[in-house]
Amino acid sequence: VLEMPVCKDDDDRKILISEFDRYCANSGLKSLYYRVDEQYLPLFESLRKRTLFVGQEGIIDINAFTLEGGDMKSTRNSINKLKSIGYVCKRLDPPIKDGVLQKMKAVSNEWLEQSGKKESVFSQGAWDNKEIKNQTVFVIEDPEEKLIGFLNVMPDYAPDEVTYDLIRKTNDSPKGVLDVLLVNMIEQYKNEGKKYINLGLAPFSGLEKGRNLSESTIRFAYNRLKIMQHYKGLRFFKEKYATIWKNKYLVYSNDYDLLQAPRVISGVSKFKG
Predict the structure, then answer these.
(1) Are the C-beta atoms of residues 170 and 149 closer than 8 Å to each other?
(2) Which of 2, 63, 138, 216 is the most buried (most CB within 10 A)?
(3) Are 4 and 250 contacting, i.e. CB atoms less than 8 angstroms apart?
(4) pTM of structure
(5) pLDDT single digits (tens) 141-199
(6) What is the Cα–Cα distance from 230 to 249, expressed in whole angstroms?
(7) Which of 263, 252, 255, 264 shows the shortest CA–CA distance to 217?
C-alpha cells in the first residue's frame, strides 16, 4: 500500500486497516504500507504494527524561499550564467504539442540511458505521453532553441501545494539546468498564490539516530557505502530548496516481513508499459 487509506478520520482509518488485514490473511497475503507519514505511527502501533524509517520528504515553503545569501551563491551564479548566454525556460500549459512531447521524450530517454535506470512506477513516475500531454510542463532551451531539460507538474490534492513528477536533462547540458527549471516553477506558482512545492522522497536520508538495529544499519549504509552515492546526490539537490522535511516509514507486521519487503517494493515498481 502506498502511504495511507483515504478516510475522514483516524477511527475510520483504523477500521479500514483492520479489515484490509483480515482480507489479506484470508487471501494468503501480507500487508506492507510504504512511505507512511510519521504522524500516523501511533495509529499503526496501536494495531501492533512495526515501523522502519525509509527517508524524508522535502517540501519548499514558497514564501520563505530566496536565492539570496551565501548558501545559494553557487546556485545563483549558475542560473545567472545560463540566462546571460541565452538559455530560456518556458512554461507550457496543456495540451502540449506533439512536437514538444517528442523532444521531451528524447531528453527522457537520454537521461535514463546515461543513468543506467529503467522507468519505475508505484511510488515514482514514468513517462506517459497521454498524461504529460495534459499537464503543465516547464522546459529549458539552449541558445539554438534545442530542448535540453524539462519537468512536468503533477496534480496534487494537498491544499496550497504543487509537485513535479519527472525532472530530466540531457547528458551534455550545463550545470544549473535543473536549478533553472525548479526556480522558474517556484516563481510561477508563488505568483498564483501556492504555498508549497513537494519535492518527493529523499530515500534513507535524514536519520540522526536509529531506533533499532535495522534503522542503525540503514544509517550506517547511507553514510558509509558507495552504493548510496546516488541517494546522497538526490538529497543534496533537494536540500538546497527544501525548508520542511517529513519523516517517512515502512509499516509491517513482523521482522520476517523485512526480508521480503525490498523484493516486493522492487517488483511493484517495475514499469509494465
Answers:
(1) yes
(2) 138
(3) no
(4) 0.87
(5) 999 999 999 999 987 888 899 999 999 999 999 999 999 999 999 999 999 999 999 99
(6) 20
(7) 255
